[in-house]
Amino acid sequence: MTSLQCASTRSVRLKLDKVYEHAKAVPFDSQSRLVIMSDCHRGQGNAADNFLANQVVCFGALEYYYQNGFTYIELGDGDELWENRQLKIIAEVHSDIFWMLSKFYEQKRLYMIYGNHDIVKRRKGYMNEHCNCYYCESSRRELPLLPGINVLEGLILRSEDGTGELFLAHGHQGDLLNDTLWPLARFLVRYFWKRMELIGFLDPTGSGRPRKAKERVEKRLVSYTKERGRILIAGHTHRPVFSQPEEGLYFNSGSCVHPRCITCIEIENNEISLIKWSVRAGEDRKLKVEREVLEGPVSLASYGRSEKP
Asked: Is the pTM of this model over 0.85?
């Protein structure tokens, strides 16, 4: 490993340790149902809106999780706020999704974590300014949306059944361009790559990130889990990862902007699974939003408890 790679790995470790230190702890047990999604990149409904093709799939998945008593955790980059300035416009374009989010929030079953593309949500008062309420066309009045919501940088899911804990963070921490220099990256995306996307190019800070760049990020996150002996669930790379107990402690929920599906992580009965949602045609030729288990379920107890400081 080169000195530069060592420095990058050390930077990731220091940043994630800081996030962990200040993270909100949420208890869960065998009765808890949790679903973790990341990298929706909801946009303004134009050609650069990568979420647009999957909004129906995502809505179907959220409806399923709401009806079945899941708590929804959005693991960063929920909204594309590098390309777009106004979250209120995004909420209007994807009003069905935000309506579902408000239903989760009303029942205290919603946690939101910010990533690099929606890092402005950490600013005090930002969410209250943009997501406090919305105008309902049918009743012609403003109704509560996500009033008073606090968007976090990290979250700790702490088991009450003795199976340890899970650390949740978007995963951009320690990345020079996407963390330290994020204002520069946002400038490039907003004024250069957004226009390139309109003619077919992919943004290299998002789904168009080169494979080797994604692998470098993953290696640093994997290294962190080994050094700390801590289960980490992240997003950021858009690549779903499910580690078996003998393989490691790193998981990735994938993204909601894959051309054919969305992926997420479920935790239920103290077991973890990797899930895919997609639109499929049945024998009657009717299109349906369907859930498919890609990996798991695997007992969280089989990964052991966090032991390293």
From this structure: yes
